[in-house]
Design a protein that fits this description.
- There is one protein chain.
- It contains 16 helices and 8 strands.
- The strands form 3 sheets. The chain has a 4-stranded antiparallel β-sheet, with helices on both faces.
- It is globular, with a radius of gyration of 21 Å.
- Bound molecules: iron/sulfur cluster (2 copies).
- The site of one iron/sulfur cluster has 14 residues, from helix 7.
Length: about 325
């Protein structure tokens, strides 16, 4: 087989045969043209100048059993998602060698890794990944971004884990959806359920979310080790090193659960997706985290939208949120 005989359909069939639930192909040159954050661009050509012409986006759905667990920090959820991420990485690797055997070099992007060159510990900035998988998925026609910029797919709503492959196979890319799948502030279930209260009007407080999305991530490790070093009493210092936090960190680092996986409460309660009515609604309909203040904020958003006012955050992300 040579590169010329590769088609988008053949790549998608192979990805599904290997275990992907959803797959789309984005045009890397368009992603270069429209970085999600122009002030901090992360685009395919910045990852590789050779193989960024197409971005294959793979998705596996999360399990219904984990989505039904009500606590955002349930270890079974973290662990289940970590296993899914590993399965997705393995299938991506198999797809890469199949692509290369077909004449098209390809590269996995570790999109859950934090880019160390952009990490500013003291600035309380959000963590940055080499490429936004959510924006790539929108460009690949797999869904649109929601009120809090989570990816929503028609099949599974936001309940998917994503993987990215860059390739030089210049096959036909998919087209972006034009209309938003999100139901907006009238729904607002992501905002009501968020333990960090990070969901805003077509925006998200990313640093606040990061502490829940990656509860045992680098900031936790660094803060904890600093507190141990700063403890003046040797006995207490040793107690801290043998305490619960160290044990949690040890387990998290062993598998990555609680580091590359974490809170996804906003995804579990989102009513969009063919899976929702039958497999989830009866278990996640009630939202224990709802408060009168959150409902009031959602009401204010609806009033603004009814008056034709949309926040700048919507305008900046309109390409990926879609028209309302
Ligand atoms: S991942 Fe968790 S903390 Fe972040 S926006 Fe969703 S519900 Fe809130
Ligand atoms: S929960 Fe509702 S408001 Fe939030 S992303 Fe889903 S559809 Fe949109």
């Amino acid at each position: 087989m040579n590169r010329g005989s590769l088609t988008a359909a053949a790549i998608k069939d192979k990805a599904k045969e290997l275990g992907a639930d959803l797959v789309g192909i984005a045009d890397g040159t368009l992603m270069d043209q429209y970085p999600p954050d122009p002030e901090n661009p992360r685009t395919p050509s910045m990852v590789t100048e050779y193989d960024g012409k197409r971005v294959i986006v793979l998705a596996k759905r999360t399990s219904f059993a984990t989505s039904r667990l009500p606590d955002w920090d349930d270890q079974n959820k973290f662990y289940g998602d970590e296993l899914l991420l590993s399965a997705l990485e393995e299938l991506a690797l198999d797809l890469i060698f199949w692509l290369e055997d077909s004449g098209a070099p390809a590269l996995i992007v570790p999109y859950k890794h934090i880019d160390p060159l952009r990490f500013q510990f003291e600035s309380n900035e959000r963590s940055h990944h080499p490429l936004s998988a959510e924006h790539a998925a929108v460009e690949a026609g797999m869904g649109t971004l929601g009120l809090n910029h989570q990816l929503i797919t028609p099949e599974y709503g936001p309940r998917v884990i994503l993987g990215l492959i860059l390739t030089s196979a210049e096959v036909e890319p998919d087209k972006k959806m034009d209309t938003a799948l999100c139901l907006g502030p009238e729904c607002g279930r992501c905002l009501k359920s968020c333990p960090a209260d990070a969901v805003q009007h077509w925006d998200r407080d990313w640093p606040a979310c990061d502490r829940f999305k990656s509860p045992f991530g680098f900031p936790f490790l660094s803060d904890y080790l600093t507190s141990v070093l700063e403890e003046p009493k040797l006995e207490k210092k040793i107690g801290m090193l043998r305490g619960m936090e160290t044990s949690e960190l040890f387990q998290a680092m062993l598998r990555g659960s609680g580091i590359v996986t974490g809170c996804r409460r906003c995804a579990d309660v989102c009513p969009v997706g063919e899976d929702y009515e039958e497999s989830l609604k009866q278990w996640v309909d009630e939202i224990a985290e709802e408060t009168p203040e959150k409902v009031k904020r959602l009401d204010a958003m609806q009033i603004e939208e009814a008056a034709g006012k949309l926040p700048n955050s919507y305008e900046h992300q309109k390409r990926w949120i879609g028209s309302l």
